[in-house]
Amino acid sequence: MFAATYGLNVGPASPARRASPPARGGVGGRGFNRIEGVDMANVVVVGAQWGDEGKGKIVDWLSERADTIARFQGGHNAGHTLVIDGKVYKLSLLPSGIVRGGKLSVIGNGVVLDPWHLKKEIEQLRGQGVEISPKTLMIAENAPLILPIHGELDRAREEASAQGTKIGTTGRGIGPAYEDKVGRRAIRVADLADAATLETRVDRALAHHDALRRGLGMDPVDRDGLLAQLKEIAPSVLEYAAPVWKVLDAKRRAGKRILFEGAQGALLDIDFGTYPFVTSSNVIAGQAATGTGIGPGAIDFVLGIVKAYTTRVGEGPFPAELDDADGQRLGERGHEFGTVTGRKRRCGWFDAVLVRQTCATSGVNGIALTKLDVLDGFETLKICVGYDLDGERLDHLPFAADAQARCAPIYEEMPGWSQSTEGARSWAELPAEAIKYVRRVEELIQCPVALLSTSPEREDTILVTDPFED
Ligand code: IMP
Question: For residue 51, what is the DSSP state?
Fold first, then answer.
């Protein structure tokens, strides 16, 4: 078993064992598309940096081979593009499995659901020929809703914030909706089914929101208008409402493969991210359990998606950020623009300190290393291996915001490679320097590479460990 061979998460792998890449378990021998084995396995996929790690391609490959695909956190702040048989699908709320026939897609209670966005996304996909019905889509009855007032509040706060205190949110109401959930005044999917309950819930929420809005100089909410909007949209959501925890329990007992599809990245986690410059949900793998209602023991493999360098959208600390020609080059070669907001992403060298940290907090069993080809042609590559904080060397990012801001990256340099790695499908096709870079990344983050992606094309992947069959 891979974990036993490589001492997963217990320390750096022995360099001696890694001297000869082609001899490594399964390298080159296992095709990326191989479908074999019936082992039951539930896989969680999480972004291990600040989001935009290239989850789309990996999640699509895994979802094709899963029975059920479940979202467990976030909302329509996520965004990814799937290209299947030349057709482009844009998803931000629905699980990736929705575009593949014969799968069950699930939106768990950990997600904040904008019903109007849901309707729009469903209509858009139906327009492209995707079949969506209550047999293929289920939404947790206990999922909280994002209301139009949440988006308004999100945007008003951002506008009112002074430079340096803005979060740089997607403006989609994610934070305010989670605030209402925790404040026990959210309107949940199940509340849409009964007019009297809905009125009580709306009144409870507005008692809070109207006071808040007065303070921000905003008009009070049009209560009757909001109620009318909710009653109108209710059937479009209730059609898919289900006790998701129960459905997943039955799937698990029947030995079906469940893929838990994370959005954003672990450094945006509300607890373990670069607070307050984070999203408002738990992003790390443990949330797959609480955000859907399965037990933690049902998770067999956690796959962390890791980009071969670092990017971030929005504000907040970024120790290895590059404000020079190298950063510009990473952005251009990597097409680093946000899918949801179109914003230019900030770029920097690979930060092994942060990824080691996120692999630990998510219990990552293996990583999918993406966009290695973007590093082609750099004469020298740098990897952040520690931070200098006022003369002291740290091997983790401290939580205090002022300390984070003062952390200076300590870099290790490695020779780059001039050959193209784009489209490589085996280790033998990679230059020696690229292999050394990957091996060094594994050592530093204390976690092995399960998949190596060398282009957006599905076939351009080197498979080391299949998460569903490990
Ligand atoms: P919110 O999730 O809209 O509240 O935004 C909070 C922070 O998370 C901002 O820095 C956003 O740019 C970031 N963020 C939210 N969703 C994503 C995503 O899917 N990819 C990358 N960053 C995201």
Answer: S
For the chain, the structural domain boundaries read: 25-141+243-463, 148-238
Query: Does 455 appear as a known binding residue?
Result: yes
Q: Which tokens go with 265?
A: 């990245």
pTM, full prediction? 0.91
Please choose, from the candidates 356, 176, 332, the residue with its C-alpha nearest in 3D space to the C-alpha of residue 267: 356
| H or E stretch at 143 | none
pLDDT per residue as tens digits for the range 35-53: 344 355 899 999 999 999 9
What pLDDT is stored for residue 204 in this prediction?
Answer: 98
Closest atom of ligand 1 to 174 CA is 4
pLDDT at residue 418, rounded to an integer: 97
Length of the chain: 470
Considering only CA atoms, give the Rg of the chain: 22
Q: What residues of the chain score a pLDDT lower than 50?
A: 1-38
Question: For residue 204, what is the DSSP state?
Answer: H
Residue type present at position 264: Q
With left for phi above 0 and alpha for psi between -120 and 50, is residue 2 left, alpha or beta? Answer: alpha
Q: DSSP secondary-structure letter at 105?
A: E
What is the CATH topology of the domain spanning 148-238? Answer: Adenylosuccinate Synthetase, subunit A; domain 2 (1.10.300)
Residues with active-site annotation: 52, 80, 181
Is residue 114 a known part of a binding site? no
> Residues 104-118: pLDDT tens digits?
999 999 999 999 999
Strand, coil or helix: what is 214? helix
- 307 forms beta bridges with 370
Distance between CA 281 and CA 142 in Å, rounded? 16
How many CA atoms are closer than 13 Å to the CA of 341, on its beta-carbon side?
Answer: 14
Task: State whether residue 211 is helix, strand or coil.
Answer: helix
Q: Is 334 annotated as a binding residue?
A: no
How confident is the model at residue 8, as a pLDDT? 24
Task: Write down the CATH number for the domain with range 25-141+243-463.
Answer: 3.40.440.10
| CA of 281, closest atom in ligand 1 | 2
pLDDT in tens, 227-277: 999 999 999 999 999 999 999 999 999 999 999 999 999 999 999 999 999
| Pocket perturbation via mutation, ligand 1, pick of 81, 93, 179, 264 by most ligand atoms within 8 A of CB | 264
Pocket of ligand 1 (CB under 6 A): 51-52, 77-79, 167-170, 172, 174-175, 263-264, 268, 277, 279-280, 313-314
> Could you tell me the CA-to-CA distances from 389 to 137, 158, 178, 272 in Å, in that order?
49, 30, 34, 19
